């Protein structure tokens, strides 16, 4: 009987380590989304389609981490899916940064913007998911880095936590 109770205890040191990593991912994802909302609605910086796609990545990582936080841990397949989702978001952020480094890059209304703005989320919550800006717009630096660079660094860090969770078991 004692063994049964011990195996179901969700507050073991291992579970608390898992919860800490999921809580960290959740808080950083929500903070990034809050910063995006603030920059868009208070500072009037219009998001481009690639910015919106990165927001989807932050949302997905926040949801996976919230589920892991509530359950105490995610199963290995769920951690793998979360890591893959994070890798996709990192890929979008890396592509965005690469495009910004191109000397004659211009981004206007393109098929990606039309696709992003036709998604149901753009109609349900336009303040968060409607692309209205240009990818090549000059944005202010924050602590020496541009907003797309910060997005790449944060997404990469959060994804690495899920990769670590996959490898750790």
Which key terms come to mind for this protein?
single chain, 169 residues, mainly alpha, Bromodomain-like, 72% helix, 0% strand
For the record, give the distance between the C-alpha atoms at the N and C termini, rounded to a whole number.
Answer: 26 Å
Named CATH topology: Bromodomain-like
Would you tell me the structural class of the helices and strands?
Answer: mainly alpha
Helix content: over 70%
Low-confidence stretches: none
Identify the CATH homologous superfamily: DsbB-like
Strand tally is 0
How many helix segments? 8
From N to C, what is the helix and strand string? HHHHHHHH
Please tell me the overall pLDDT.
82
What's the main sheet like? none
Shape: globular
Task: Specify the CATH class.
Answer: Mainly Alpha
Report the sheet-strand fraction: under 5%
Named CATH architecture? Up-down Bundle
Task: Work out the count of structural domains.
Answer: 1
Rg (C-alpha, Å): 18 Å
Kindly describe this structure.
- The protein has 169 residues and is mainly α.
- The protein has one domain: Up-down Bundle (Bromodomain-like).
- The longest helix is centred in the N-terminal third of the chain and has 29 residues.
- The radius of gyration is 18 Å and the shape is globular.
- The two termini are 26 Å apart.
- One of its GO terms (molecular function) is protein-disulfide reductase activity.
Detail the topology: elements first, then pairings.
Elements: H1 2-7, H2 13-41, H3 49-71, H4 76-100, H5 111-118, H6 120-124, H7 126-129, H8 147-168
Helix pairs in contact: 2-3, 2-8, 3-4, 3-5, 3-8, 4-8
């Amino acid at each position: 009987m004692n063994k049964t109770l011990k195996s179901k205890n969700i507050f073991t040191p291992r579970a608390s380590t898992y919860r800490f990593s999921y809580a960290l991912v959740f808080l950083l994802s929500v903070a990034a989304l809050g910063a995006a909302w603030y920059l868009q609605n208070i500072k009037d910086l219009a998001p481009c389609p690639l910015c919106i796609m990165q927001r989807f990545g932050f949302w997905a990582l926040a949801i996976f981490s919230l589920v892991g936080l509530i359950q105490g841990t995610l199963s290995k397949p769920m951690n793998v899916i979360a890591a893959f989702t994070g890798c996709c978001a990192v890929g979008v952020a890396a592509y965005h940064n690469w495009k910004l480094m191109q000397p004659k890059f211009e981004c206007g209304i393109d098929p990606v913007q039309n696709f992003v703005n036709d998604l149901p989320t753009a109609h349900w919550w336009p303040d968060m998911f409607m692309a209205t800006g240009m990818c090549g717009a000059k944005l202010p630096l924050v602590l020496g880095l541009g907003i797309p660079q910060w997005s790449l660094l944060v997404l990469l860090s959060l994804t690495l936590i899920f990769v670590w969770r996959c490898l750790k078991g």
